[in-house]
Amino acid sequence: MADLVAAIDQGTTSTRCILFDRAGTAVSSHQIEHDQIMPRAGWVEHDPLQIWQRTETVVQQSMAAAGVAASDLAAVGLTNQRETTIVWDRRTGQPYHNAIVWQDTRTAQLVGELDRSGQGDLIRERAGIPPATYFAGGKLAWLLRQVDGLRAAAESGDALFGTIDTWLLWNLTGGVDGGQHLTDVTNASRTMLMNLADLRWDPDLLELFDIPPQLLPEIVPSSHPEAFGTTRSAFGGEVVIGGVLGDQHAAMVGQVCLDEGEAKNTYGTGNFLLVNTGTEIVRSSHGLLSTVCYQFGDEPARYALEGSIAVTGSAIQWLRDQLGIVASAAEADRLARTVPDTDGLYFVPAFSGLFAPYWRADARGAIVGMTRFHTAAHLARATLESICYSSYDLVKAMEADSGITMTSLKVDGGVTKSDLTMQLQADVLGLDVIRPVVPETTALGAGYAAGLAVGVWDTAEDFRANWHEDRRWFSQIDADARAAGIAHWHKAVERTLDWVED
Question: So what's the pLDDT on residue 502?
């Protein structure tokens, strides 16, 4: 039996395909960025057709680099940016509108009205998450209201809704020629439309958002040999699609956070801290989300508490693309190293409001503490520090909800390539920060879910043998310096609030 698995990792800024062997080692990889479309302030969109085309390209290039064919692959796993919303015509495969990205804030008025009316409590109770611009249900409701002809197409069954996993699955399995309209439990749990307890679309939530049920994909487990079908495009032959997980849930699997109490923090476009809560749905009182962690086959679903930050790694992209003060993330790191500290400069990149633990859609980004002395280097360092301070807020909320005091933190994602940022994170937290040998654990988790479905790995516990520590950072500052920095960070956060009045 072939023991290579292909993992498609469709992220907020790029798409990659990585081939993994049974030891969890990357055999080949290819990655391409896609366009970030920003029609107006607070709106963020992607071109679904471009994402699909680049998915095909990265698959083909990764397979070519490894010199393999479809017959050499045991299974395909898929992981994706969550909450990003697409509606398309099942007859033509054409989207009705650009994808509305998870960072987009156009639904602020809609979700605000839900909360003010008291209906937000129903969403919290059934879906485990607050009414927020972050989630897919509000974006779908907005599309149904704003796109001419879409509601009629939805009610007739001609329109299909999906997050990115559903869109790619539909195209991979045939598209207009019999494509499968599916989503897994982790992605469905990010819509405000699924009942966390029974893992089904909730009729009351659909009525609340006025969403026709025939528009929605079928919800299936995250790993299953028969649930997702087989590839009919991109791979040049049929390969079983064995697993689908939202990106942060995939990272939990890749970091082997399979037992209750195990946690990880992913540093990507945003930051996402999750702790496994086992088969129990734990409700947060400190601004975190209750979500599905994963579901393998016919086993009960595992749940998690999650803290989400909208803008972390994308703040570095902002330095590159909007300000032009660096040419790459690596250059931002080098620039930040040229100064010993920020000399009192703080940057809160609340470009899409503030997510956990604040949940303030009215917030906007702020740079505070500036003097004429400050340079681009200080801003670059403040940007890296903002990632670490935001994660501090999540860790403290997680400790308060779980009753567990963390002694170390597993980290993964692209930003962990920055040794400076990881040292700053250890300093801010006062904890050991541990990076695995394979930092891109999101793709690895998707590969694990796919391989588990077809027998490449016998049980999920087999993944533990593949996890190895690459580097560990220890705090290098004293408690007084840490406390002072955190206090100033919270003062900076206060300056971002109540900025958007509508």
Answer: 64
